Amino acid sequence: MAAKPSREPRYPSLTQLSTRGTFYDVGYNVGLNFSQRIQLFFAESDNIQQKLLPFYHTRVGRDYHEECLRVTEECFPQYVREVRGMADGSGVPFEHLFQLCIHEKIHPDSLASQHNAQSTEGDFRPASAEKERVRDEFGCTTVYLNRPDLKLLLHNEDCDPLIKPYGYLLAAHIEEDGVKEEFTSFCYPGCLPGRAMNFNKQGVVVTTNALYPDHTVRCAPSRVFLSRALLSARNLEDAVRILKNEPYGAAYGFCANICTADGDMAAIEVGPNKPRADVHVHRVEEESDPDKPCHYYHFNSYKHLKVPEISGLNSSARRAKRTSEMPPPRTLQDALVAMGDTADTVCPVFRTPRPTDRGETVATGMFDVTAREMLVYQGNPAAAPNKPILKVPMYC
């Protein structure tokens, strides 16, 4: 008797959706088209089933959810509508999708133990046991190359391995009440676009690196909503304004890697604070001398902003050490080799799940500012024949 064929996806494989409408419409269409992926992701994610949803169903968790929803509706009502549309389209409760958008780097154990349900101001810090569990398992590697004739941003999207079968590419054109947004985004199932790798019609490329401050500011929007807002940025200065987010600030930290059609390149580190997020802009300057390095790496720890971090950022440290030992990348092929490096078998740059590192590089994005093209690789981008699965013209 013939063996039953496997229903597992075969890679490379990346599903795409193009849609337009209001914020709610776009969210609804995403939810409707990817309802099965979103539902399966929720059902199979240990983090969601064992931590996120149980926390939401506690008194403290519900109170925290409500205060986050209140401040987010004040600051980003259009993106809350987008989440509501996704919920209605997918059949997953809005409360669960919103919790997914606010939970990142929130530590429910310490929130419950250190603050009562009436506490709505200030910040909280993870308990030591929680710190040890929250390491940079799901983080990313980014490298910039900046010469007059070569302006590249490459990004390894390192995350929960479930994102590989359930993630998708979204091309959205939003028009509502005089507001227009047009962008392309690699999306996590059930989460707002913006948190991974993206570009918009204004010529702004954005990828993000998770960062791990040792505290979280309550009554401030989550990094997921700030990342979503970046998709509306017109230029580097506008991106900085969005990230400062006055007078609401930011609940947690991350790094926004920016390059623009005008050739501006910068790593913008964000620290949790209110009424204005702490922001440091590190410009990656153009290097015209071919004998000098033209690159810049960013991982999942702060390089410039003075923010206390949790312990256990082992993967970031090892990836940074390994790239410092490699020849400086000077070409696209050099950068692909660096992003595909596996010499460190404990915490490699190109990540596959292993006992010492649960994260996976589910995709590698290459943004060529000069050619105005986005390439997406699945699998090791350094492995022959290292052909991209997808080529997308940018800014068109």
Automatic annotation (TrEMBL):
InterPro entries: C45_proenzyme-like, Peptidase_C45, Peptidase_C45_hydrolase. Residues 146-382 form the Peptidase C45 hydrolase domain. It comes from the Eukaryota. This is Peptidase C45 hydrolase domain-containing protein. It comes from Batillaria attramentaria.
